C-alpha cells in the first residue's frame, strides 16, 4: 500500500453511542508526555528519505486560511499554491517531475468555499470548509446544521465541524453524540472532520472520550484544534487521539483519519507528526486520505528544506512563491 | 535505487548513522594500546599484557588495553593514599570547583563520549546521547554541590580514605560517575576498575581529569578483569569498596572483605516487578515496558523484567505488547533510528539464549520481534514470555537481556505477594490511575526504588540501591553521600583489644524458681514473641557476678531458639506500620516503667558487673534518657522529598529493615542493650537481641518492663547464651535483614562473612569498644540511619 493509493471513498459508519468503550479511560499525562518526548530521539529521517517524507507531508497539508480578512483574491492565491506547492524545478530535481503533487486540500470559511472551488477546478484538490459556528460552535444547532449544508452546496467536499465543548466538559455524551450524528447527516457525501478543540478540553482523558464519541457518531476524521484555542495541536493530545482511533479501529474495523491543526509550523513538526503516525498506526495512515496537517506557514519551511536537499545551499523564503 | 519516488511508497526511515570519525581517530592514536591512569599519568603498555576490546555491534577490534596486575593496583592505591592526605583537606569549595569542571568538560565532550560508549558497549546512540552522558554530567554537577556543602550538611563526618570501585559494563561511564562523584565530593580518592568489556569511556574520562587539572592520584583507573577487581577490593590499604555487578560476585566480595574493617556498598542484581492494574493507562504501561525491559537491551539491573498484569486486562495488555514489538527497531546502535542495539558480547548473548531456551523448555511461550538482525555482532531479538509462572526458571533468575517474563494476579494483595516473591529487591514499577492503590502497593513492595506510572527514571538527587539480595547502600542524593563518609567518632575509636574468651557453664534448667537466697539470685528465661520461653536445649548457664559469685542462671539459647525468635519477630506486622507517635508512646512508657524500677536495675548492675552504686545509677539514668531520645525520634526521623525532575514527586522514605539482629557487648550491659535495641525498634523494626553474655540478667529483667509497657509481643525478643555462637545463626538467617554486632574482632569478621548469604546489611565494631556513656558514640542519627533503608518512590504528575 503506497502513497499512490487512491483516495477511498470509504466512510466511517459510526456506531450507536457506546460509553463502555471509553467510560473507564484514564489517560496518564506523564506517561503520554514521556512517550511523545521520545519520538524525536528514537526516529529521524535523513537525506533522500527526509526529502520523500517532506514531499509526503506536503501532500497531507490542508492549506488553510481562516482569517477575518480573507478575500477572494487571498483564497485564489492560496489555491494556486495548493495546486503547485513545490516549485517545478525542485520537483524535477527530486525526480518527481511527472508526479501530480498537490496539497491534501484547501481549508477555508464557508463563504470562501465558492471562490476556492472555482480556483481549484480541475486540480483534484478538494475544498474543505469549517462550519458549525467555527471556532466556538456556540451558535444554535439549526444554524450550525444549515451552515454545513450551505458549505456543501457551495461545493465543499470536506466539512470541518467543531464540537460543543460544553458537552465534553459536562460529560454529556448523549448530547454530543446526537449533535455530531446530525452534523454528519447534514454533510451528506462530504467527509466530516470533527474538531475537538482539545485546548479547551484540557485533560487527555477528555480528549480520548471526545474522540470516541465523535467516531461513534460517524466522524471520518478527528481533528485536534481550530487553531483559535490557546493550546493547539500538541504531541500528547495527538497521541491520545491516535490511540483512541486505533482502539476504535480494533473494535469496529473502521479506519478513521487524523488531522492535527494549529501550531504545526515547521518541516520538523511535520516530520515529528509523521513519525508518530507511522509508529502508532503505520504506513496506511501516512496517506492524505487518512492524515492531514492543518497548516498555513509550514509549507514554506518544507519548500526551503526541499530546496536545500536539491542544491545543498540553505534557502531563502523569498525564492518560493507565496501561498 | 532509493529514489524519492520509491520511498514515497514505502515511507521507510532509511539509515541515519551517527558519525564516528573523531572516535576512530582517537582510537587510532593509541597505537600501542591504552594503559592505566595512575597518579595523573597513563602508564606505558610496553611490557603489559593487553586484552582486546571489540565493538559488539560489528565484532571489530576497537583497542588493546592493559591488564591490571597487582603491581598496577599497588601503584594506584599508593597514589590514591598519597593524594588523599591533601585532597581530604582541600576545602569543599575547591573540590566543588573540580567536580564542576569535570561536569562541564563531560558536556563539552558529550557527543564524543556518547559515540565512544555506543561503540564500546553496543547500546544505542539515542541512549548514550540522551540518557547516559547527560546523567553523567548531572551527577557531577549534583556532587559538586555536596562538596561545597559538606561541612554544613554532614557535620561530624570524615572521608573514608581510599575507595576501591568496581563497575559493570552495562552503563560504563554512568556507573563511573555514580562511583567517583560522591567519593570525590566527600574527600576520598579512588581506584576504579571499569569492566573489561567496556573500558574505553573511563579512559576518556581520565583524560578529562587531566584536562581539568585534577590533582594527581585523586582518580586512578586500573583496567582489567575480575582478578584485577579482586586485587583492588582486597588491597590492604583500601578503606572502602563499592561494587556494582552480579549478586554472586557481590557475595564473594562481602566474604572477602569480612573483618577487614573496609566499608562496603553493593548494588547487585534484580528481578524487578512491573505491576499493571486494570485501571492503568494500558498504552502508557506498554511504553513503560519499552522503557523497562527493552531499554539498554535489557542489560539493566533494575529492569522491570517480571511483568505482572491484573487478570481482567491481561489479554488486552499482552496483545498490545505484541503489537508494540512490531515497531521496535533493532540494529546498528550508531543508527539514530534504533531502539535496541547489540548485547555487550557474544558470551552474554549465549547466556541470554540459553535462558530463553530454558524458558521455552519449561513451557513458556516466547514472543519476539521479527526484525531481521544484522549479520554481524551480538544482537538479541527483544520480546517477552507468556505462560511463565513464578516457579519458572526465567521468572526467578536475571536474564539480563531484552526479554521479560509475565504473570497475572487477581487482587492488589496478590500483586504485592507476587511482586515480593523474589530474593531481590532493587526496583519496581506500579501502574494504576488510582493514587490510593498505587501508593499502597509502592509502600508494600520491598524495593529500593519504586516508580509509579513510570520506569527507569534516574536522577543524581535521589538515592538508588536495593533491598534484600540486591545489595545495600545507596548511590545519589543525600543518602548516597553517607556511603563515602564515616562518623568521626567511629573512626576515632580505640584499636581492638583482645577479648577474654567466654564459655558458658551450663546446667540443666532449674525448675523455673529463682534460687533466691538474697533476693537477687534468679533464673531467667528467654523472651520470645512476647512470652517467656524455656531454652530449646533445656540448659541454663551460670551467671557470675562480682568476685565470680553466682547470681543466677540464664537460659542457654541455641540455634532453634534463634529460629523461634526470628519467626516471632517476622510475624510482627503492626509495629512497622504503626505511626511514629504510637511507637513513641510505647517507648516513653517503657522509660517510665524503668524509672519506677530504677533501684532494682541499679542493684542488679552492681551485683552483676561490680559497678559502683554511682556508676550503676548513672547507667540507669542514661538508659532512660536514651529511651526518651529514641522515643522522641520515632516520629521525627523523616524521609525527604528530593528535588529531582519537574512534575515528579520523589519521596525518600526511611523504612525499617523488618527483622534485625542485635548482639550486645558485655560493657554497660543495660545501657549498651538499650543503645542498640531502641533505635531499631523506634524505627519500626522488630529485633532479636542477644544481650551481654556475661550479664544477661540485666536484659532479661527488662522483659518484665516490656510486658508492663504495651510493647507488642515479638518486637523485642531476647535470647541469652554465648553471643558468638548465637549471632552466627542470626547473621546466617535469611529472614533477618540487618545485623548489628558489638563484641570482638573475630566475631565481627564472622558476622560479616556469614551475612553474605542473603547479603544482609551489617554494622559491627571490629572489637573497638564504644563509650556508651558518651551520647556522641552511644546514640545519634547514625544509629537511626543504620536502622532503616531508604526507599525512593517516584510519582510523576500531570492533569
Keywords:
heterodimer, A: 323 residues, alpha/beta, TIM Barrel, eight-stranded parallel sheet, 13 helices, 46% helix, 10% strand, disordered N terminus, B: alpha/beta, Aldehyde Dehydrogenase, Chain A, domain 2, Aldehyde Dehydrogenase, Chain A, domain 1, six-stranded mixed sheet
Number of strands of chain B: 33
Q: What name goes with the CATH superfamily of the domain at 19-44 and 105-298 in chain A?
A: Aldolase class I
The value of Rg of chain A in angstroms is 19 Å
CATH architecture label of the largest domain in chain B? 3-Layer(aba) Sandwich
The description of the largest β-sheet of chain B is: 10 strands, mixed
Helix content of chain B: 40-55%
Strand-pairing-aware structural class of chain B: alpha/beta
The strand line-up of the biggest sheet of chain A is 7-6-5-4-3-2-1-8
Model description:
The complex is a heterodimer of chains A (323) and B (799). Chain A is an alpha/beta fold. Chain A has helices at 29-42, 47-59, 72-83, 88-93, 113-119, 141-154, 165-169, 173-187, 198-201, 204-216, 235-252, 267-280, 298-311; strands spanning 61-64, 105-108, 127-131, 158-162, 191-195, 221-223, 257-259, 293-295. Chain A has a domain at 19-44 and 105-298: Aldolase class I (TIM Barrel, Alpha-Beta Barrel), CATH 3.20.20. In chain A, α1 (29-42) packs across α11 and α8 (173-187) packs across α10 (204-216). The longest helix of chain A is centred in the C-terminal third of the chain and has 18 residues, at 235-252. Mean pLDDT of chain A is 95; it is low at 1-6. With 799 residues, chain B is an alpha/beta fold. Chain B folds into three domains: 33-240, Aldehyde Dehydrogenase, Chain A, domain 1 (3-Layer(aba) Sandwich), CATH 3.40.605.10; 272-465, Aldehyde Dehydrogenase, Chain A, domain 2 (3-Layer(aba) Sandwich), CATH 3.40.309; 557-638 and 655-789, Aldehyde Dehydrogenase, Chain A, domain 1 (3-Layer(aba) Sandwich), CATH 3.40.605.10. In chain B, 42% of the residues lie in helices and 19% in strands. In chain B, α21 (580-596) runs antiparallel to α23 (613-634), α22 (598-609) packs across α23 (613-634) and α23 runs parallel beside α24 (669-682). Chain B is globular and about 100 Å long. The two termini of chain B are 48 Å apart. Classes of the chains: A alpha/beta (323), B alpha/beta (799). The A-B interface holds A 2-4, 24, 26-35, 41-53, 55-56, 94-96, 99, 202-203, 243, 274, 278-279, 282-283, 286 and B 2-5, 7-16, 126, 129-130, 279-281, 283-285, 287-288, 291, 327, 336-337, 339, 433, 453-454, 647, 796-799.
Amino acid at each position: 500500500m503506497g502513497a499512490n493509493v487512491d483516495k477511498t471513498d470509504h466512510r466511517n459508519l459510526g456506531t450507536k453511542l457506546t460509553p463502555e468503550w471509553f467510560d473507564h479511560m484514564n489517560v496518564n499525562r506523564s506517561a503520554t508526555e514521556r512517550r511523545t518526548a521520545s519520538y524525536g530521539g528514537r526516529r529521524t529521517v535523513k537525506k533522500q528519505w527526509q526529502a520523500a517524507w517532506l514531499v509526503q507531508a506536503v501532500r497531507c497539508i490542508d492549506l488553510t486560511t481562516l482569517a477575518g480578512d480573507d478575500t477572494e483574491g487571498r483564497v485564489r492565491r492560496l489555491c494556486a499554491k495548493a495546486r503547485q506547492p513545490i516549485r517545478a524545478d525542485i520537483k524535477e530535481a527530486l525526480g518527481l517531475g511527472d508526479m501530480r503533487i498537490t496539497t491534501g486540500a484547501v481549508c477555508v470559511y464557508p463563504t470562501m468555499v465558492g471562490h476556492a472551488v472555482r480556483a481549484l477546478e480541475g486540480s483534484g484538490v478538494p475544498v474543505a470548509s469549517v462550519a458549525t459556528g467555527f471556532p466556538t460552535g456556540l451558535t444554535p444547532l439549526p444554524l450550525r446544521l444549515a451552515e454545513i449544508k450551505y458549505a456543501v452546496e457551495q461545493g465543499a467536499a470536506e466539512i470541518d465541524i467543531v464540537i460543543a465543548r460544553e458537552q465534553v466538559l459536562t460529560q454529556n455524551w448523549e448530547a454530543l453524540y446526537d449533535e455530531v450524528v446530525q452534523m454528519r447527516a447534514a454533510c451528506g457525501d462530504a467527509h466530516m472532520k470533527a474538531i475537538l478543540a482539545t485546548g479547551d478540553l484540557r485533560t487527555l482523558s477528555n480528549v480520548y472520550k471526545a474522540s470516541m464519541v465523535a467516531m461513534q457518531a460517524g466522524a471520518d476524521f478527528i481533528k485536534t484544534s481550530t487553531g483559535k484555542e490557546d493550546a493547539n495541536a500538541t504531541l500528547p493530545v495527538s497521541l491520545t487521539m491516535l490511540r483512541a482511533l486505533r482502539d476504535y479501529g480494533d473494535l469496529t474495523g473502521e479506519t478513521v483519519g487524523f488531522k492535527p491543526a494549529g501550531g504545526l509550523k515547521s518541516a520538523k513538526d511535520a516530520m515529528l507528526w509523521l513519525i508518530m503516525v507511522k509508529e502508532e498506526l503505520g504506513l496506511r495512515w501516512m496517506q492524505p486520505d487518512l492524515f492531514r496537517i492543518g497548516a498555513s506557514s509550514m509549507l514554506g519551511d518544507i519548500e526551503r528544506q526541499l530546496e536545500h536537499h536539491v542544491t545543498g545551499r540553505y534557502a531563502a523564503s523569498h525564492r518560493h512563491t507565496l501561498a | 535505487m532509493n529514489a524519492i519516488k520509491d520511498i514515497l511508497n514505502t515511507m521507510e526511515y532509511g539509515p541515519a548513522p551517527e558519525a564516528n570519525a573523531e572516535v576512530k581517530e582517537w582510537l587510532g592514536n593509541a597505537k600501542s594500546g591504552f594503559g592505566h591512569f595512575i597518579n595523573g599519568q597513563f602508564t606505558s603498555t610496553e611490557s603489559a599484557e593487553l586484552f582486546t576490546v571489540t565493538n559488539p555491534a560489528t565484532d571489530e577490534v576497537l583497542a588493546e588495553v592493559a591488564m591490571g596486575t597487582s603491581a598496577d593496583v599497588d601503584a594506584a592505591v599508593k597514589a590514591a593514599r598519597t593524594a588523599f592526605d591533601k585532597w581530604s583537606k582541600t576545602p569543599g569549595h575547591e573540590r566543588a570547583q573540580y567536580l564542576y569542571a569535570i561536569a562541564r568538560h563531560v558536556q563539552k565532550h558529550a557527543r564524543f563520549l556518547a559515540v565512544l560508549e555506543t561503540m564500546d558497549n553496543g547500546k544505542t546512540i539515542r541512549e548514550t546521547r540522551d540518557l547516559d552522558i547527560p546523567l553523567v554530567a548531572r551527577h557531577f554537577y549534583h556532587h559538586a554541590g555536596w562538596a561545597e556543602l559538606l561541612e554544613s550538611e554532614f557535620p561530624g563526618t570524615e572521608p573514608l580514605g581510599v575507595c576501591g570501585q568496581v563497575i559493570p559494563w552495562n552503563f560504563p561511564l554512568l556507573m563511573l560517575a555514580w562511583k567517583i562523584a560522591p567519593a570525590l565530593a566527600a574527600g576520598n580518592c579512588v581506584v576504579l576498575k571499569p569492566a573489561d568489556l567496556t573500558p574505553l569511556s573511563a579512559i576518556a574520562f581520565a583524560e578529562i581529569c587531566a584536562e581539568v587539572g585534577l590533582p594527581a592520584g585523586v582518580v586512578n583507573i586500573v583496567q582489567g578483569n575480575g582478578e584485577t577487581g579482586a586485587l583492588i577490593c582486597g588491597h590492604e590499604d583500601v578503606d572502602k569498596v563499592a561494587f556494582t555487578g552480579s549478586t554472586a560476585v557481590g557475595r564473594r566480595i562481602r566474604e572477602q572483605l569480612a573483618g577487614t574493617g573496609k566499608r562496603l556498598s553493593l548494588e547487585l542484581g534484580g528481578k524487578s516487578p512491573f505491576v499493571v492494574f486494570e485501571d492503568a493507562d494500558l498504552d502508557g504501561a506498554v511504553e513503560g515496558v519499552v522503557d523497562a525491559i527493552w531499554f539498554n537491551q535489557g542489560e539493566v539491573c533494575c529492569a522491570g523484567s517480571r511483568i505482572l498484569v491484573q487478570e481482567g486486562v491481561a489479554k488486552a495488555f499482552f496483545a498490545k505488547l505484541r503489537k508494540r514489538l512490531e515497531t521496535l527497531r533493532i540494529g546498528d546502535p550508531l543508527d539514530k533510528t534504533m531502539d535496541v542495539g547489540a548485547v555487550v558480547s557474544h558470551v552474554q548473548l549465549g547466556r541470554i539464549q540459553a535462558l530463553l531456551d530454558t524458558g521455552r523448555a519449561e513451557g513458556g511461550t516466547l514472543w519476539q520481534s521479527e526484525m531481521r538482525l544484522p549479520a554481524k555482532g551480538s544482537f538479541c531479538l527483544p520480546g517477552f514470555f507468556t505462560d511463565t509462572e513464578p516457579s519458572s526458571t526465567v521468572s526467578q533468575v536475571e536474564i539480563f537481556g531484552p526479554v521479560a517474563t509475565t504473570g497475572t494476579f487477581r487482587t492488589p494483595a496478590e500483586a504485592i505477594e507476587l511482586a515480593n516473591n523474589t530474593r531481590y529487591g532493587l526496583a519496581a514499577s506500579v501502574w494504576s490511575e488510582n493514587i490510593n492503590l498505587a501508593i499502597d502497593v509502592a509502600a508494600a513492595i520491598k524495593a529500593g526504588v519504586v516508580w509509579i506510572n513510570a520506569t527507569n527514571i534516574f536522577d543524581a538527587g535521589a538515592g538508588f540501591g536495593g533491598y534484600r539480595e540486591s545489595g545495600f547502600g545507596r548511590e545519589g542524593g543525600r543518602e548516597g553521600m553517607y556511603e563515602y563518609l564515616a562518623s568521626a567518632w567511629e573512626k576515632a575509636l580505640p584499636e581492638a583489644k583482645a577479648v577474654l574468651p567466654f564459655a558458658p557453664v551450663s546446667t540443666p534448667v532449674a525448675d523455673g524458681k529463682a534460687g533466691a537466697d538474697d533476693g537477687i539470685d534468679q533464673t531467667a528465661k528467654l523472651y520470645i514473641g512476647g512470652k517467656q520461653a524455656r531454652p530449646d536445649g533445656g540448659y541454663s548457664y551460670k551467671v557470675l557476678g562480682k568476685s565470680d559469685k553466682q547470681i543466677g542462671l540464664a537460659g542457654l539459647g541455641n540455634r532453634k531458639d534463634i529460629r523461634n525468635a526470628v519467626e516471632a519477630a517476622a510475624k510482627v506486622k503492626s509495629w512497622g506500620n504503626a505511626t511514629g507517635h504510637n511507637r513513641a508512646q510505647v517507648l516513653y512508657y517503657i522509660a517510665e516503667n524503668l524509672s519506677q524500677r530504677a533501684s532494682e536495675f541499679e542493684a542488679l548492675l552492681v551485683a552483676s558487673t561490680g559497678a559502683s552504686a554511682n556508676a550503676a545509677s548513672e547507667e540507669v539514668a542514661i538508659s532512660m534518657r536514651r529511651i526518651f531520645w529514641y522515643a522522641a525520634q520515632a516520629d521525627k526521623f523523616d524521609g525527604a522529598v528530593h528535588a529531582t525532575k519537574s512534575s515528579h514527586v520523589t519521596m525518600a522514605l526511611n523504612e525499617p529493615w523488618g527483622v534485625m539482629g542485635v548482639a550486645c557487648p558485655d560493657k554497660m550491659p543495660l545501657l549498651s542493650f538499650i543503645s542498640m535495641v531502641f533505635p531499631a525498634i523506634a524505627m519500626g523494626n522488630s529485633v532479636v537481641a542477644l544481650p551481654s553474655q556475661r550479664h544477661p540478667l540485666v536484659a532479661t529483667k527488662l522483659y518484665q518492663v516490656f510486658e508492663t509497657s504495651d510493647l507488642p509481643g515479638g518486637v523485642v525478643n531476647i535470647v541469652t547464651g554465648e553471643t558468638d555462637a548465637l549471632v552466627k545463626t542470626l547473621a546466617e538467617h535469611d529472614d533477618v535483614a540487618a545485623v548489628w554486632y558489638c563484641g570482638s574482632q573475630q566475631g565481627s569478621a564472622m558476622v560479616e562473612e556469614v551475612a553474605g548469604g542473603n547479603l544482609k546489611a551489617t554494622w559491627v565494631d571490629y572489637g573497638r569498644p564504644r563509650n556508651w556513656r558518651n551520647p556522641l558514640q552511644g546514640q545519634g542519627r547514625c544509629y537511626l540511619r543504620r536502622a532503616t533503608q531508604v526507599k525512593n518512590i517516584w510519582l510523576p504528575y500531570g492533569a
